[in-house]
Design brief:
By secondary structure, the chain is α/β, with parallel strands linked by helices. It is about 25% helix and about 20% strand.
Length: about 300
């Protein structure tokens, strides 16, 4: 799943229009300051100082690319806590699963070859946009929707700790690499699946991705139709991540939410924004560039979070 696919890479830009970010604060209390005014829901609680707000505002304005609709930059967003990756860096990752060569470069190539290719992508982006540092990452599908029910009948294939540990080891081949663990919940629920990776989310370099396509709330089998998450599900996840950040005194978590249809995310206007979590609405999918651009305009640009 990738917003911009270049040789199997996923680009995570920023503030949803470039592929990431959301955030805010005030002078008297770290949780009161607002970047602007809007109807977007904001989580007020903030126990730590925000980022350099002047630089943050400058960067998200730049990322709006001269938008005249008033949608961008997203307004009334809480500033992220200090140490936030976005919008200060561009995240470039390879995606996949170690057990499949068809799900992305992370499983298609041996670790050394994979890093050789990803490093070339990183150098490409450093060359075309030297003003934005690149944050390298690996995006691992830690729970894969399955065509068979499994022991619990949930049609989900959870990767064991051994596999996740292997990805973390591969990430260490390049210093400061971050890791996304992606969940395809199938007939399970996001509430039930998060505890399986909780110990990893407590690590400062581990972030989260979830895939509505494989969230089968109506009991359909994964792959037979496109699934969905509601804002209530997403707010549960951001609250879960925010609690981890506060409890373990971490920098903000980046939370990637895949989306390429309207119904994949319902009531997006009710998604709460929190200083501890940087939400990324990530447009991905197979298809021709024109189709992807149209999808982006409708469901990402048109529905800012």
């Amino acid at each position: 799943m990738k917003i911009t696919k270049i040789a199997g890479a996923v680009l995570i830009g920023i503030a949803t229009i470039s592929t990431f970010a959301y955030c805010t604060s005030d002078a008297k209390k770290p949780g009161d300051k607002k970047a602007a005014n809007d109807t977007t829901k904001v989580e007020e609680e903030n126990l730590r100082a925000p980022v350099d707000t002047a630089k943050y505002n400058q960067l998200i304005k730049k990322l709006a690319n001269g938008d005249t609709t008033g949608k961008w930059p997203v307004k009334n967003q809480p500033y992220p806590l200090d140490g936030a990756i976005l919008p200060f860096k561009r995240i470039v990752v390879y995606y996949g699963n170690l057990h499949s060569k068809k799900m992305g470069a992370l499983g298609e190539y041996a670790p050394k070859e994979m890093w050789s290719r990803l490093n070339k992508e990183i150098k490409h982006w450093e060359k075309v946009d030297p003003s934005t540092p690149v944050q390298a990452g690996l995006h691992y599908i830690a729970a894969v929707a399955s065509g068979t029910p499994g022991k619990d009948g949930k049609y989900i294939n959870r990767m064991g700790n051994k596999q996740i540990d292997s990805v973390l080891k591969i990430a260490k081949m390049r210093p400061n690499t971050i890791v996304f663990l992606d969940l395809q919940v199938a007939l399970s629920t996001i509430k039930a699946e998060l505890p399986h990776i909780a110990k990893y989310l407590e690590m400062p370099n581990v972030h989260l991705g979830i895939d509505p396509e494989f969230s089968m709330k109506d009991g359909s089998l994964p792959g037979k139709k496109i699934g969905t998450y509601d804002a209530a599900d997403i707010n549960y996840v951001t609250g879960y991540l925010a609690d981890i950040v506060k409890k373990h005194n971490l920098t903000p978590k980046v939370f990637v939410l895949h989306r390429f249809t309207k119904k994949m995310v319902t009531n997006s206007q009710n998604i709460k924004l929190r200083p501890e979590v940087q939400v990324v609405m990530h447009m991905d999918g197979w298809g021709e560039p024109d189709l992807k651009l149209g999808t982006y305009r409708h469901f990402i640009f048109g529905e800012p979070v």
